Each structure stands twice: as structure tokens, then as C-alpha cells.
């Protein structure tokens, strides 16, 4: 997916999930980025030569403070940002521990039930990832 816009920006992230510590219900973690005032799944650009899964796990920990165990691969999204092609590889990942600390990049996170998470996400492509994640869990 290249062209006159230059090289594709490669990124990776996760649909981060856990079982609620109080109810045991499924919760999905979303991040709020003040720069864009949006809600999304934790993700970010890959470093040069970085394996996409390694990058996804690194970005989750950087943005949410949580370590995680990767699960099923989810669909890769393709879109344009400021005229540049972007490709984001995603995995489902279960949170295994950690603690969120606000930063300039991510000022809030939310652990939400799937329906609420889907409604809160800013981009339709991120909502589709929730659907893909739930389908992957059902088939796991």
C-alpha cells in the first residue's frame, strides 16, 4: 500500500482485556489521547526493525502501564493519516498486571464492558475490532 504518499507507517496494538476484579465480567481497556481528544485501543508506531507483536506489547505497556499476554491475531487496519498510509497490526491481549500512570500521550484509560467500549471508541475501524475480538474469544 504505497504510492505517491511515500512509505507506509507501520504500527501495532492490542485489544487489551481482563476479567473485572469485582464482577468477573469481560472488560476492554481504552486509552484517551488528549492530543486528539479521542478514545482508541492502545497502539503506536513500530521502531525500525521491530517485530509487530513485540511492538504491540511494548505500546500497551507504555500507554496503559499494564503487561499482557498476547492471544489471537486480529485484523490489520489500513487507513490514511495526513495523507500517509498507515497499517496497524492488532492482537487480543489479556492484561496480567500493572498500574496506569497518566502521561502527555495518554491522560486516561477506561476499563469498559464491550458494548460501552464499542460506543466510546472514536473511530469506526476500532469498533469493528471489538466485534472481531469478541468473535475470536467465542472461538478460542
Percentage of residues in helical conformation: 25-40%
Query: How many helix segments?
Result: 3
Span between termini: 31 Å
Query: Number of domains in the coordinates?
Result: 1
CATH superfamily: Nucleoside Triphosphate Pyrophosphohydrolase
CATH architecture type? Alpha-Beta Complex
Task: Characterize the structure shown.
This protein has one domain (9-138): Nucleoside Triphosphate Pyrophosphohydrolase (Alpha-Beta Complex). Mean pLDDT is 94; it is low at 1-5. It contains three helices and seven strands, in the order ββββαβββαα. The longest helix is centred in the last third of the chain and has 15 residues, at 124-138. Helices cover 25% and strands 44% of the residues. Strands 1, 2, 3, 4, 5, 6 and 7 form a seven-stranded mixed beta sheet that branches. A hairpin with a 2-residue loop joins β5 (66-81) and β6. It is globular and about 50 Å long. With 140 residues, the protein is of the alpha+beta class.
Amino acid at each position: 500500500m504505497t504510492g505517491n504518499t511515500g512509505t507506509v507507517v507501520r504500527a501495532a496494538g492490542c485489544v487489551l482485556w481482563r476479567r473485572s476484579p469485582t464482577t468477573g465480567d469481560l472488560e476492554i481497556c481504552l486509552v484517551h489521547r488528549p492530543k486528539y481528544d479521542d478514545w482508541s485501543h492502545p497502539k503506536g508506531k513500530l521502531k525500525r526493525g521491530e517485530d509487530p507483536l513485540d511492538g504491540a506489547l511494548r505500546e500497551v505497556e507504555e500507554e496503559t502501564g499494564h503487561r499482557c499476554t498476547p492471544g489471537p491475531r486480529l485484523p490489520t487496519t489500513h487507513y490514511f493519516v495526513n495523507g500517509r498510509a498507515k497499517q496497524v497490526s492488532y492482537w487480543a491481549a489479556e492484561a496480567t498486571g500493572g498500574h496506569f500512570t497518566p502521561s502527555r500521550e495518554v491522560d486516561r484509560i477506561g476499563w469498559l464492558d464491550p458494548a460501552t467500549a464499542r460506543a466510546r471508541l472514536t473511530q469506526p475501524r476500532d469498533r469493528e475490532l471489538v466485534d472481531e475480538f469478541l468473535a475470536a474469544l467465542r472461538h478460542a
